[in-house]
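WARN retry 2 of 3 for item q-0093 after timeout on previous attempt; input resubmitted unchanged.
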Amino acid sequence: MTEQLLKLDPMVRKLETAVREFKEAAGNNDLVAAQQLLRQISQTSDFLAEDVTAIYKSEQASNIGEGPNDIYAGGVPVMKFEEKSVPVQQPSILGLVQPHQQPRGYQPQQPSWGNPNRG
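OK item q-0093 returned
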C-alpha cells in the first residue's frame, strides 16, 4: 500500500504549494487570487480523496477472509447475491398483436376480397 501512496506524492506537493500560495494571497489581501487558489485546493483534495478511497477499498477487498460467520448464519448457509443485467423490453407498437400476446386458439382474420358473404 505504501508504494501506491508514494505515487500520490506529486499531487500532495501540488496541494502544499497551493496552500502556501493561498496563505500568501490572503496575507496580501488579494481576494481574486485567494479564491482561485481555493478552487485549485478543492479540486486537488477531491482527486486525492478519490484516489486514497480507491486504494483503501482495494486493500480491504483483498484482505477479506471467509470464516464460518461469512458462510453460515445460525447454522444456515448465507445466500450471496450478484448483480445481473435485466433485459430491456422493447416498447410495443399500438395495434400490433405480437406472438407472445396472442391468446390460445388465435387465428388472424382472412380478408374477404370483396365477397360480402365472407366474414
